[in-house]
Each structure stands twice: as structure tokens, then as C-alpha cells.
Specification:
homodimer, about 375 residues, about 40% helix, Rossmann fold, DNA-binding
Chain lengths: ~375, ~375
DNA sequence: ATGAAAGCGCTAACAG
DNA sequence: CTGTTAGCGCTTTCAT
């Protein structure tokens, strides 16, 4: 019968009882407002409002009466009204390309840690890799008057037009991971070119001469940059590239199987594969092994993301690790310090976060000594 | 320079240009309201409002002028104001115990499909298995005046007090999967007792005599019910149960390792394990195999959830499958049809969705013929 | 220390 | 078909 509510940030754990009401078939019941409290206490609404916010203008005793009465009456602040009045929502919107990813979840955790501490709520939306949905999400967050936005772009997204409205209203936007290079955008990213380079170089060092690259749309920065690194490593080590070595598809299970079949049919057969997704790498490896390919000895593999599955599959998967939680925290911290006027995000451009190659069984060849 | 916006649901893809503004260091700029449009057109605000909503009361020509001017001026509806006025937000809140799970993501996808179609937005919050965060999330959704709630409970949640406020205001709540049995709650679930029974029975049929159960807190319905099914199967097949066979921990990687070590040290050694999480099963199996245990022949395994990893690990994992997307759709559909007054959720109690045992390598024993 | 009054942007009842 | 008016619940000058 009790419900704790934080109608005042700093008054914690005030609990009170609701008057019970019949709950079936009824219209939404009215709800207690500060006016109800004011009336009961013979005060003005403004006084109640101040009291609830612990304004120093209000006397201790009055304040106490207000808070107690609010409890007793089951008052609950109406954030909608407050947002409208204050012209800000204390909410930041987060648009991600998908939810079902370990990386994205780490980022979300990081964002949440920072925003919660700063007293902001977050509003999560996901585009499921669809541009149309991303645009819809952006509109919606805009209509809801979020104070700031953190976003990673869908696979299909090619421009930032749908974020322009935020800029026009001086609502700050910070991008992470999946970004578009634009002059005035702030982004938290990893060095994808370097990652692609390091992954490929590692395979080369393991003796691979013919390295396939399995990835998703090169329209998306992360993939084009990793591809660039891959090409750079090949070039520097005088290995030939041909278009046959590049397999582009979405990152679905089916795509992984298809890639495996393509690899099987290649002639000459490749001896290394760099995949920009651990999941795809895992499905691909599995299919190849079912066809008698030995990994890493016949074909070595490197994935991307350091998903937990890397340690679960056989052989364990070499991959690129990068810190989702840190990325989320950095993005959120920058956004909030801008909102609080402590710094100006428009002067920051890209923030690059560390990333590491993690070597596991899938790429370490027993034969082929250095 | 163009930004598509849907200030009217049915008028799609109106694009217009914003007047450019200096974006650095400025306060949030004012933003166009219907009054600005009204003034420019020498109309009343109400007329503009109606025009924007395609009200049949407004003349075609006027409507056109309104819409075009709105475009030109860069008008964007203020949902906060609309919500306040209409006393409803056209938003439904979703609280889940975690985001990083295939099951939860399927549910979210299902919810989204239905809500989007019905013109509702969703607001996603997650508790990270923490009761305190779940309470905070509930409060927040309440303060934001969501029209309805869909929730699965955290591992720590033992009561529904924090949802009582919704009931008091006749805001409908539908639970799924992780629920508490309460009189007036509506829930979409699977038959966890049956699942536990079927999983255990399968192991017994494969010749297992000493079956360990690895699970999480039995305070949570899903785990206590699966445990109940497990016990029932043992009892019906005259297999002895002892407390040593029950391993309770969180579903972390560490917990999985610990469980494996416990199993290794058991004497006599068990010959079957039923785990209520595919991930834990996978980590556990991996550890056991590293210690020379052969699966399924020495120890057979059954997991729970039918996560994609089931097919990626070796041996592939036998598990219980249940349809997340359907669960999400059913929950959302019930909620919305209640909101629209088409049905009354208070008369529905539990909706049980199908679930199936999927047999893979981890439990099928070559020897030990029937 | 408290109150009166205005207004955030929108919609809807009522009038014409 | 269009305008007037009021009010959703809250905060915030400006008085007192």
C-alpha cells in the first residue's frame, strides 16, 4: 500500500499511501496536483511548488507541512507540465542501430551511469538498421524536446539531415561508433582504419597470403574504414588484392553461411579471413569446419568486437576489442558538460578511444614458423 | 537543408527548410508555435491546430495554406504541450530486466511492431536486474504519464508495490515472462513448470540418473517454476533428489565456471545437467570439456532460451525455445486494445504461450540405447 | 515568507 | 467553416 516517489530529488524515500479506488473500467482518474495540496493547506500553489523543491524562501515548518500533506494525498509530480513550463525535459535521447549487441549494451550502460548521476533520464530508441526508423526516432525525440541526443547511425544512413532540426534549436548531438563525417559533428569513435590494419597484419604475420574480408555495407564509416586498413596492410606487405576477396553482405546468419560457401568455392582457396563481426565469423567458421576446413591451420580467422561468444566457440576467436562502456561514458559526459555550460561541444570534433587486438586460437598457426 | 517532419500523422514527407542560425554557445532558440503560424495567416490558433490535424471542419484551401506555412516556417509540434493538454502521452513504457538478451530483444521487437502500428511510442527502460532501478524506472514512467506499461521483473523484485501507482490511476500494466503472481495482474508467460519438466524428462530418457540443476534465484517465478518441473520429473521417474544437485547463482560467466567446478568435484559425478540459461550452459560445458569431460556421453546438457549460441558451440546445445516476438506482440496487443476500450485487461489474467524442447547434440547419447 | 498572476504550447467546448 | 476562451499542471517573476 505504499509507494515511494521522488517528487523532490533530494528528499529520498518518502513513502505514503494511496486512497484506494475501484480500478476496473474506470477512466483515468484525476490525480493530485499542487493546487489540491495548496487548497488543503490554505496556501498558494506557488508556495507548495517551492516547498516541494526545498526552496530556501519557504519556512521550515511550512515546508514540512507541505511535504507531509503531499505524501498523505498521494501527490506525484507531473513531469510533462514541468517540462512544458521550463522548456526543457531533463531527458536525453539515445538512438542506436540495434539493441541486440553486446557492444551497444555496454555503451548504453556507460551512458546510463553518467546521465543518472547528472540527474538526466534517458529515452532509448532503436532503428533496427533502418534509415526510415532512424528518421522517425529522431523526429520523435525532437518533438519530445529532449535536451540532448546520443546516437549511432543505422547501416542505411547516409546523411545527417534528420539531425539538423536539433542543431537548429541548439540541442546538442553526440555520435558514437557509427558516424558520418561532418564538419560540425562531435563523435566518439575508435580508429577503425588502424583496427582493420592490425587485424590484417596479424593474419599476414601468421603466414596468410590470401586474405578474405567479410564485412557489411562500405557506405557505413566503420566498415569502409576497416576495409581501408585491410587494404593498407595488404599493400604494405605486397599482397595482391582482388575483388573476389571482398564479401559484402548484412551481418545475418544467412550472410555468414553464404560467405562460408563462397570461401569454399574460391580457387585458389584463401588462407585467412578477417570478418567485421564476431557473430558472422563464428557462423562462418562453423560452416567451414563442417566442410572439413581446419581452423586456423588451413584458414585463419579474425573477428571484431570481442563478444562473449569469442571464448565459447572452437577454436576461440581472435578479435578486436574496444571499450563500449567507456565510449558511452565519454559521449554522455561530453554532452552533459555542454548542457551545463561547462564546455562547448561544438569545439570538440572527434574523440578516439583505444582498441586492441586480442589473439586467440582462431588465428595462431602451429606450423608456418616465423 | 531539408528536414522531414510529421507534424501531422497522415501528411507524409513534407520537407522544408530551416532558417539557419548561429549554433555556437547560443541558448535554445524559441521555436515556431501554432500562434506564429496563426499570426502570419491572420487566423486563430485553434484553426491552425485543426488544420494541422486535418480536421474536417477546416476548408481545403485554408488547410493547404496552414500546412504550407507550417512547412515554410519550420514548425514542429510540441508533444509535451499536447500531452499535457490531452492528459495522455500516446506513449507506453517498457521496463525490462536487461537489454542484452536475445529473448528480451525479440520481445521488444514484437512490442514495437504492434505499438508503432497503433500510433504509440515506446519508452524503454531497463533495471539491470536491480530492484532499486526498477522502482526508479517505474516512478519515472509514471511521472511521464505513460498511457500503459509492459514489464518483466528484475531478479530482485519480490512485490509489485512500485506498480501500484499505475493501478491507482487506471494506467494498465501487462507483465511478461518474469512476473509475480498477483490477483489483478495480467501476464504473458510460458509454462515454466512444464518446461522444467520436459527438459529434465528428456535427460532422464537419455539415460541420466543424476541430474544437476543450475539456475538463478528461486525467488523469481521463472526459476522456481522450472525447478518445480525438474523436481516433478525426478520424482515421477523415481530419481532421488538431494540439495547437492541444486546450484543457485546469478547467470554470470563466473557463476558458470563455479558451477562447472562444483560439478567436477561432485561424488558420485552427475551424468546430466539442466541449466536455465544457454549462456551459462555454454560456459559451463566449455569448462567441463577443458577438464576432460565428454559431452553428452559423460554428462548431457540442456539449456534454456534457444539463443543463437546454441548452434555455434560444440556440441550444439539442446534447449527450450519460446517465442519472444509473439510474447511481445501479445502483451502489446492486449494493452492497446484495453487502452482503446476494446477489451478490459482486468478481466484477463494469464496468457500462456507455447514453448518447445529443441534437441541438439549436447543431450543425445550415442550409447545407452533405449 | 507567501501570494497573485502570467504563461509554457496545445486542444476542445462553445459560439457564431 | 472559423474564432474566443479556458485550462492541462507547473514554475517564476513581481508584489507584498
Amino acid at each position: 500500500m505504499n509507494y515511494a516517489i521522488d517528487f523532490v530529488n533530494f528528499l529520498k524515500n518518502i513513502s505514503f499511501s494511496f486512497t484506494s479506488q475501484s480500478a476496473s473500467g474506470m477512466k483515468k482518474s484525476k490525480g493530485i496536483t499542487i493546487y489540491d495540496i495548496a487548497k488543503k493547506l490554505n496556501l498558494a500553489a506557488s508556495t507548495v511548488s517551492r516547498g516541494l523543491q526545498d526552496s530556501p524562501e519557504i519556512g521550515k515548518k511550512t515546508k514540512k507541512r507541505i511535504v507531509e500533506t503531499a505524501e498523505k494525498m498521494g501527490y506525484s509530480a507531473n513531469l510533462t507540465a514541468r517540462s512544458l513550463r521550463q522548456q526543457q525535459s531533463e531527458t536525453i535521447g539515445v538512438i542506436v542501430h540495434q539493441l541486440n549487441s553486446n557492444f551497444v549494451n555496454s555503451v548504453l550502460a556507460g551512458i546510463e551511469r553518467v546521465t543518472t548521476e547528472a540527474g538526466y533520464d534517458i529515452l532509448i530508441a532503436h532503428s533496427s538498421e533502418s534509415y526510415v526508423k532512424e528518421v522517425a526516432n529522431a523526429k520523435n525525440l525532437f518533438h519530445r524536446r529532449v535536451d540532448g541526443v546520443i546516437s549511432s547511425l543505422s547501416l542505411e544512413t547516409m546523411d545527417l539531415e534528420h539531425f539538423r532540426a536539433f542543431a537548429e534549436r541548439n540541442v546538442p548531438v553526440v555520435y558514437f561508433d557509427r558516424v558520418e563525417q561532418e564538419e560540425n559533428s562531435t563523435a566518439v569513435v575508435i580508429d577503425n582504419v588502424k583496427c582493420g590494419y592490425v587485424a590484417t597484419q596479424h593474419l599476414i604475420q601468421q603466414g596468410c597470403k590470401r586474405i578474405v574480408h567479410v564485412t557489411a555495407s562500405l557506405n557505413r564509416n566503420v566498415y569502409s574504414q576497416r576495409y581501408e586498413g585491410y587494404r593498407k596492410a595488404l599493400a604494405e606487405h605486397k599482397l595482391e588484392f582482388s575483388d573476389d576477396l571482398l564479401i559484402i553482405d548484412d551481418h545475418s546468419e544467412r550472410a555468414a553461411m553464404d560467405a562460408a560457401m563462397k570461401i569454399l568455392q574460391m580457387n585458389p582457396r584463401p588462407d585467412g579471413v578477417f570478418v567485421t563481426s564476431d557473430f558472422v565469423a563464428a557462423f562462418c567458421m562453423r560452416t567451414l569446419r563442417q566442410h572439413g576446413i581446419s581452423i586456423p591451420d588451413t584458414i585463419a580467422f579474425v573477428g571484431f568486437n570481442n563478444d562473449p561468444i569469442c571464448k565459447l566457440i572452437e577454436p576461440t576467436l581472435t578479435t578486436i576489442d574496444y571499450p563500449g562502456k567507456d565510449i558511452g561514458e565519454i559521449a554522455a559526459r561530453n554532452l552533459i558538460s555542454h548542457l551545463k555550460g561547462l564546455s562547448n561541444i561544438n569545439r570538440t570534433n572527434n574523440i578516439t578511444v583505444r582498441s586492441d587486438l586480442i589473439v586467440r586460437e582462431s588465428s595462431v598457426r602451429s606450423r608456418d614458423p616465423e
